[in-house]
Design goal:
Oligomer: single chain
Protein name: Polysaccharide (De)acetylase
Largest sheet: 6 strands, parallel
Helix content: 40-55%
Number of helices: 15
Organism: Aequorivita ciconiae
CATH class: Alpha Beta
Length: 378
């Protein structure tokens, strides 16, 4: 009961201020596409043999670099439902554009960092040979819109610090061409090397944020032929000084939750919270797009996933706010456990069908389009 009250209060606060519109707008924001997570089924079995409680982390249990079947299956569901303007359901594909080059890093004895574009990582994965062309086909059919999530999903300073000190868990992960695993529990956030912008300073050991942002946008443009208009920081963690460099690279809109986690220093896990709302502008004129709905059946359980998402959408529309739905890649990956993708796509289809049934005037769109609507009205 207490958790339910907290949930209702938080959602009312999120929707209580900011940009409003009578239009019924639905935006799905899906993070992590392009990044490596669990390397393979074999790697997963190795961890289990060595005492890692992989089943306690929904990400390391189910998430892996996307393959052809993942994209084909998701595309089929999105194309099956149309909005009031005859547009199909649409996902903003938030793209991590590079992964570590583990072989080169190993040769340098953990003294220097090397990365490769995610497209090269895809090329080495035998079941992902058509992922890029399938994404581009989806873009042409108006079901996908890539946006920038970062170069890597790694706090490079922390990762290399742990590699150089021979941290057993970090070394075990590296041997499997991974950078984030834990003995037990959910692997997420700064403590497990995932907050790519989790340092207060702009430069330091193994990272230079201005260069990193520039290179990320360059890879993004080379891959998709466009410049990303929006950005979502890994783990919703970044220092506000970063926004200047994002703007210089053409980023006009900042995706996120209503809480920004801002690092206080580099040496500890201390942070402060900043609060945002949809339509809010920073000093540089960039607009915040704040998620006010969740559809995360893999992490939070499938039982009430559709019901809860519909409640959140209903509340958003009651406040005349766009429904911005968080729905990570992990929900749609099936190469490790096919049942994960199969069952969640059934739930997604049910959710989409119920949305157009309850709100016949609904409009599906991507984050960058919503951002342009908001900025054009200011």
């Amino acid at each position: 009961m207490i958790e339910q009250i907290k949930f209702v209060v938080s959602r009312n606060l999120v929707n209580g201020i900011g940009w409003r519109s009578p239009r019924k707008i639905v935006v799905f924001e899906s993070d992590d596409w392009g990044m490596i997570r669990m390397a393979s089924k074999e790697a997963q079995e190795n961890f289990i043999k060595n005492g890692y409680k992989i089943d306690e982390c929904p990400y390391n249990l189910n998430d892996r670099l996307e393959n052809d079947e993942d994209i084909e299956s998701l595309s089929k569901v999105l194309l099956s439902v149309k909005d009031s303007r005859d547009n199909p359901a649409k996902f903003t594909i938030n793209n991590i554009v590079a992964n570590p080059d583990f072989e080169k890093i190993k040769k340098e004895n953990f003294e220097k960092y090397y990365y490769e574009p995610f497209t090269k990582t895809l090329e080495r994965q035998t079941d992902s040979q058509n992922v890029l062309s399938l994404f581009k086909e989806g873009i042409s059919k108006n079901i996908f819109q890539p946006q920038l999530h970062g170069r890597e999903h790694i706090n490079l300073r922390l990762w290399f610090q742990r590699l150089q000190h021979g941290d057993p868990v970090t070394i075990d992960a590296f041997k499997q061409k991974m950078y984030s695993v834990h003995k037990r529990g959910i692997v997420s956030g700064r403590r497990f090397n995932l907050d790519a912008f989790g340092n207060k300073t702009l430069t330091g050991d193994f990272f230079n944020y201005p260069d990193l942002i520039r290179e990320a946008q360059q890879i993004f443009k080379e891959t998709w032929g466009i410049q990303s208009q929006s950005f979502i920081a890994p783990c919703y963690t970044w220092h506000s000084s970063l926004e200047k460099f994002l703007k210089e690279e053409g980023v006009r809109y900042l995706q996120g939750t209503y809480v920004q986690i801002e690092p206080v220093d580099n040496a500890t896990f201390k942070f402060k919270k900043k609060y945002h709302y949809t339509g809010q502008r920073n000093k540089l004129g960039q607009y915040f797009l704040v998620r006010n709905c969740n559809f995360e059946p893999t992490e939070f359980g499938p039982h009430n996933a559709v019901k809860n998402a519909l409640k959140e959408i209903e509340l958003s529309f009651a406040y005349r706010k766009p429904a911005i739905i968080s729905s990570h890649r992990v929900n749609y990956i099936g190469s490790l456990h096919p049942v994960n993708r199969r069952e969640n796509l059934k739930l997604l289809k049910t959710l989409l069908e119920e949305i157009v049934k309850r709100w016949p005037d609904v409009e599906f769109m991507s984050s960058d389009i919503l951002g342009s609507i908001i900025s054009d009205q200011k």
